Amino acid sequence: MSDDDDTLKPNGSAYTLSQISQYLSYIGLDESYHPSSSPVLDVTYITTIFQAQLASFPYENLSIHYNPVHRIILDPQRLFAKLITTPKRGRGGYCMELSIFFSHILRALGFSQIHYSGVRNRNRTNGIPQGNYNGYVHLVNIVTLPNTNTQYVLDAGFGGDGPTFPLPLTEHTIHHNSIGTQEIRYIRDWLPDQRFRDESRGALKHWVYEYRNSPDKPWNSYYAFVPEHEFTELDLENLNVYLSECKRNHQTYTILVIRFLRDEETRKIRGKVMMVQGEVKQNLGGRTELVKVCKTEEERTATLKDLFGVELTDEEKGAIRGWASELKG
């Protein structure tokens, strides 16, 4: 290891090359993926990194609930400590945490053309997105690979319904989303309540992330964004305060955990296991099945460890007492 490994932070990343070595070891990739080995930063490379990221760090909002201060800190070094350097407890994060963390990882790996885009989600009823698009409550990373003009969207924090590979920003191209028969695509369209639509004066349509669970089903949309509208980490801090601290937001009263499962030989995503409050479900090939219903905190924290690999400290377990999401049996 050279001195530069402990000091150099490429492309404005918060992380050093030494931290990248720790990251690669954590996600199960060897030093051939390290910048010092001069890997080709192509689609194959970034897909391998992205799928290892998804499988290694679950989507989870536990730091809102099992936390004495019930607050999420987005400082990149705090995120690195939570996800990598503290004793391995299987922790992940929710969208703001995972996407900011992954952005700094990608920059340190050598991707210089990368920015955040704010995302408008739709609310779900019985798991199905419906109605109008909300204000900005999510974000994605948009990356242009070296020596290409193609942009790829890397959504490291949407949970079980997000793309399981870097999704090229091309319209109407249909992709299989790894698990079962679900297909996904992007289209460009105006949002229903979007009033300024004069493209000759700079009005921009949104890119809409759509899905259908099989080729014979109709398309439906999860979220929409404008890639040209870059968000900064200060913008994301404002969103973070609302999402993690406003009592009207579902994140503050509902525990959500989603872990992607990866085939160890192919390194491809093969399924997912999910927890919503006390209900645990899994999907190993297109069909979602109920696995368990936790009725007490003791059951839930044990299930987090056994099925999700997430181990909470005694202090964290005690912090949920009296909180809206506590299971009381």
UniProtKB/TrEMBL annotation:
InterPro entries on file: Arylamine_N-AcTrfase (IPR001447), Arylamine_NAT_domain_sf (IPR053710), Papain-like_cys_pep_sf (IPR038765)
Pfam families for this protein: Acetyltransf_2
GO MF term set: acetyltransferase activity
Family label: Belongs to the arylamine N-acetyltransferase family.
PANTHER family: ARYLAMINE N-ACETYLTRANSFERASE 4-RELATED, N-HYDROXYARYLAMINE O-ACETYLTRANSFERASE
Name used for this protein in its record: PaNAT1 arylamine N-acetyltransferase encoded by the PaNAT1 protein
Originating species: Triangularia setosa
